[in-house]
Design goal:
rod-shaped, mainly alpha
């Protein structure tokens, strides 16, 4: 009753060892592919976070410019000095916001170069 041995063409006990090796090999390949995918996902998440930070800085810059323009228009329409003081305060706030945005942009260039 050596039907199994004849059917496997003399493989002997290898038919017992081959499936676990195949399973282990498959799991190892799956592990490495999952690790590479996780790394790409992490990189994409970091890029998304940097993009959201830049978008926030752009929004803040736009708000500052809009406020300064509104204050300037109010001063030109009314001639009231308090609007000119607000304008000066808003304009003084715009330049640091622009510098932060420029620094964030240059830091995001390939190689992390900061040019002046």
């Amino acid at each position: 009753m050596n039907i199994l041995g004849e059917a496997l063409d003399g493989l002997g006990r290898w038919y017992v060892a081959v499936p676990p090796f195949l399973i282990i090999g498959f799991l190892a390949a799956l592990f490495f592919l999952t690790g590479a995918g996780q790394e790409r996902l992490q990189e994409a998440s970091e890029r998304l976070q940097k993009s959201a930070q830049r978008e926030h800085l752009i929004d803040q810059l736009q708000i500052g410019v809009s406020r300064s323009v509104a204050a300037q228009r109010s001063f030109l329409l009314t001639g009231d000095q308090k609007f000119l003081e607000r304008y000066d305060a808003y304009v003084a706030d715009v330049e640091p916001r622009l510098e932060r945005l420029l620094f964030q942009h240059l830091a995001g260039l390939p190689g992390g170069c900061v040019r002046h």
